[in-house]
Amino acid sequence: MLFLFEEIHLSQSKTSNQIQEEGSSAVKQSCVCASKFANGREATFRSRKTIYLLSSVAMLSLSIVAGQFCSDLFEGERCLKKRPEWEKYRESLYYFSTQMSSWTDSRRSCIDLGSDLVKIDSREEQTFLVEKLKTKILHPEDKFWIGLTDSKKEGSWLWVDGSPLDKRLSFWFGTEPDNWSEKNKDGEDCVRMGKHDVTDLECWYDQSCLAPQKSICEKHWLMEM
User: Fold this and answer.
1) How many CA atoms, within 13 angstroms, populate the side-chain half-sphere of residue 50?
2) What's the pLDDT at 223?
3) What CATH topology corresponds to 87-224?
4) Which residues of the chain have pLDDT under 70?
5) What span, in angstroms and rounded, lies between the C-alpha atoms of 8 and 189?
6) Exposed site from 8, 18, 109, 193, fewest CB < 10 Å?
7) How far apart are CA 196 and CA 184, in angstroms?
8) In its keyword annotation, does this UniProt entry include Disulfide bond (predicted)?
9) Could you tell me the residue ranges of all domains in the chain?
10) CA-to-CA distance for 202 and 187, rounded, in angstroms?
């Protein structure tokens, strides 16, 4: 397995503990990237100045350290530090939170994770999310907040980044949005998505921003490097 380091010199004579100590420092400074195993026995470690061959024991020791900081491998010898609960699609990571919160509190929770409520930019992204929610929605009212609201001006739907909703990429269910105000006099200014028996992509619903719902957070995967 090929690991690239900014500046680290290793040799076969060093102990596993020494390798772990130096490896930990190097991994913190730069993302460790991997390609292929070399017969499963040896790995080539490359620095700016020197190439060293390490035994399988040394490789295992450093792999354990590296795994604490960078676990997933992607094309182009790039890697991504990500928690298991984040799911990758194209250039984004998604976290499907099961915590029931208002739209504002849900967004705050996403921001605390270095992300924001999801912004849906394409039909393909909507398809991905719908497929994921098929296994996460437990009953008809079990839905997830997305980063869309008209709280500033009724009928003017904006994403959390301030960009307006492209009507060609809207996925309202039936007669939604209807701004129903019987439960809340302020109406329904935030958007949730999901259907229990989903058969198509049209599954957006406006809802009172105060209603407790689950949520979807999104961030660009490069933010994890």
Assistant:
1) 8
2) 65
3) Mannose-Binding Protein A; Chain A (3.10.100)
4) 1-84, 198, 223-225
5) 54
6) 18
7) 24
8) yes
9) 3-80, 87-224
10) 21
- Predicted confidence at residue 109, as pLDDT, reads 97
Which residue in the block uniquely carries the two structure tokens 């699609």?
A: 89
How far is the C-alpha of 221 from the C-alpha of 49, rounded, in Å?
A: 30
Name the amino acid, one letter, at 41.
R
Backbone angles phi, psi at 23, to 5 degrees: -65, -40
pLDDT digits (tens, 9 = 90+) for 66-109: 444 444 444 433 444 446 589 999 999 999 999 999 999 999 99
Residue 156, φ and ψ in degrees, nearest 5: -105, 95
pLDDT of residue 198: 66
Q: Map residue 21 onto helix, strand or coil.
A: helix
Amino acid at site 36: K
Residue 47 in 3-state DSSP? coil
Half-sphere CA count of 38, side-chain side, radius 13 A: 13
User: Are the CB atoms for 61 and 23 separated by under 8 Å?
Assistant: yes
* 216 sits in which H/E element: strand 213-220
Whether the Cβ atoms of residue 187 and residue 208 lie closer than 8 Å to each other:
yes
Percent of the chain as helix, strand, coil, to the nearest 5: 25, 25, 50
